[in-house]
């Protein structure tokens, strides 16, 4: 284990929480944030929210929960190697998908379309809304009262939110509803741990989608052989273990690919550290470019893999059929709840009945974004199946 890097985020210097609390006697502020995420209702719901497939398609495909755990494992490994705060990196990895609605990207696209007259829907903004407003577990405040560093990383893990061409007024309304948004230094990059979590997400879903796509029969090991780097790894495993079946070949190849991506990120980041010489997490934020990143040599193979997965997996006709059904389910549910708020369960119905226009739409959106795949399908059955009048 490497000693703490000078550019790591220091939990001793945390900017604190917006609602003052006594410190924990046994945990650092970031460990406490991690524990609050794990105990949150929104985190538990990730077990039945999907990445690509609908939850009932099979027990072995990844869900948002298993994906988040895989991202957390990768984040901790990279943070440990680079001398960063492992707990903060893990916290941001575990929380990065909290705002996703049911049915993966199809669900987000449809909810955004439903909310188009009401300033839209954005899953990153919804994550902030969940941890600052919608989770209600404490008597003195709404939300989880996370540290500044966790909120900043959650909001900006993909890069700055504002700039010369992007004023704060252009951000999704779920961001702008947070009263301390401007305090999060929106025109700068996130700290190093948040950058690690963001790229760990890329490592996890790119490589694990290979596993899920083969398991689902959307493409084969042979189909991957023409891809740069990925094909080389699969060929190497087949040559080394000539008697392995394709499932075992896939497991071994994906394991090696994850290691390859991690090692490239670590090497490239160390090269950038030598060039940029940041001496604090604040300097990392102010660099004007990411400190954490992949090498140019890996960018081409990564783009080729994404292109392959887009055409052979995300746009496969079987996935398109699931997306089509999922969108119809959410569109119909949104229309009923918006026009007949008394059909919402308590306490959502009372709040929606009191509101009109964008206020009511946002309540409906919050309710639907929190649904799991299975719950959304069950709500649809209850509302539209006339043989189930219960």
From TrEMBL:
Transmembrane segments: none annotated. Residues 1-20 have a biased composition (Basic and acidic residues). SMART domains: HDc. Keywords: Hydrolase. One of its GO terms (molecular function) is dGTPase activity. Residues 1-29 are annotated as: Disordered. PROSITE patterns: HD (PS51831). Residues 64-206 form the HD domain. The keyword Repressor does not apply. It comes from the Bacteria. Pfam families: HD (PF01966), HD_assoc (PF13286). CDD domains: HDc (cd00077). GO terms for biological process: dGTP catabolic process. NCBIfam families: dGTP_triPase, PRK01286.1-1, PRK01286.1-3. Belongs to the dGTPase family. Type 2 subfamily. This is Deoxyguanosinetriphosphate triphosphohydrolase-like protein. It comes from Hyphomonas polymorpha PS728.
